[in-house]
């Protein structure tokens, strides 16, 4: 099964037998557990088995295509920009996963019950987010076909940066309020606790 | 349009103002709190106008711009006349002549539970209160007042609804009673519901009274109080 060290593969190509190889990232085992196929486009690479494990098979992965940017996974903290605020939820465009920016468009939804941890049925979405705010959120789940489910129900999650109605970047005052430096107007948001 | 060298607040009150006019200079006024209503905006040290209309002032410190439009901008606390467009699982979609359809929650009625949800057909006329109206979000309505009572909100049966401008609606709702309604009310018996979104509903025992009241109101929009009384009396004489 040797060939070039880094063979270019496309989805559906056979990578090897399941008895000889373990399926890593970008690869999967067929339903009858006999063959390992590629599921992404990229370069095939083999990694030897980790020490101390019983499994002697090397792991085959498909990596390297430039469209494989970071992808939101449940449990990761993402940075998103709020696009729409509605009565019971807010839509956001995910821009970064951890420290890296994403290469494709991912949409997230923050539901009313996931905005904060206390008094979740009295949350006013308009007093928590506005369109254009940058928020730090946690990915709860893959959600449905349209969007990931995000949550800001922690002290360090919430609005990181927002513009006031006068157009200036606001300064956070408390966990519920931000103030405009030009007009002094205070606006309500669910503010993230600043700090490393 | 003369330009005044010093901008004192009294110079512009009750005058027609246009977007861009500077009406107040905050650096000249010290230690005062001023409340700005619709149509005004703070630009650093000056207050400038955003909407064309008449600048109004109410003691002690409220300024706002009043204008009359055929379009309605939803704002919380207004009583409006809406038309049901659709019924979804959780709310009715109601048209209130604003930029977006408004949501009327299915439970926002006095004594409303999941079991006795009212069945409104498409086209039903409702007298409702705007609860929340934020930019970008669909306005939220309710058929209850702030304390949870029904208070005249709900569907309006029979009668005739016509649309006009928001200025006319405000005139009809002003206190003391506007001359048109007062003069009409002395001779005729009718009921009327005025929505701040430019819709007015009139109902009377006979169609001719309804038509007379509706036409009279529509014709008196731009008349002064004295002219209104004269016009109404003329029209009433023709009926007799």
Automatic annotation (TrEMBL), chain A:
GO terms for biological process: RNA processing. Residues 101-142 form the Exosome complex component CSL4 C-terminal domain. GO terms for cellular component: cytoplasm; nuclear exosome (RNase complex); nucleolus. One of its GO terms (molecular function) is RNA binding. Residues 54-64 have a biased composition (Basic and acidic residues). It is found in: Nucleus, Nucleolus. Keywords: Cytoplasm, Exosome. Residues 42-68 are annotated as: Disordered. InterPro entries: Csl4 (IPR039771), EXOSC1_C (IPR019495), Exosome_cplx_N_dom (IPR025721), NA-bd_OB-fold (IPR012340). The keyword Lipid metabolism does not apply. Gene3D superfamilies: 2.40.50.100, Nucleic acid-binding proteins. Residues 8-45 form the Exosome complex component N-terminal domain. Transmembrane segments: none annotated. The keyword Ion transport does not apply. Its main location: nucleus. PANTHER family: 3'-5' EXORIBONUCLEASE CSL4-RELATED, EXOSOME COMPLEX COMPONENT CSL4. This is Exosome complex component CSL4. It comes from Sesamum alatum. The lineage of its organism: Eukaryota, Viridiplantae, Streptophyta, Embryophyta, Tracheophyta.
From TrEMBL, chain B:
SUPFAM superfamilies: Eukaryotic type KH-domain (KH-domain type I) (SSF54791), Nucleic acid-binding proteins (SSF50249), Ribosomal L27 protein-like (SSF110324). Residues 34-71 form the Exosome complex exonuclease Rrp40 N-terminal domain. GO terms for molecular function: RNA binding. It is found in: Cytoplasm; Nucleus, Nucleolus. Keywords: Cytoplasm, Exosome, Nucleus, RNA-binding, rRNA processing. Its main location: cytoplasm. Belongs to the RRP40 family. This is Ribosomal RNA-processing protein 40.
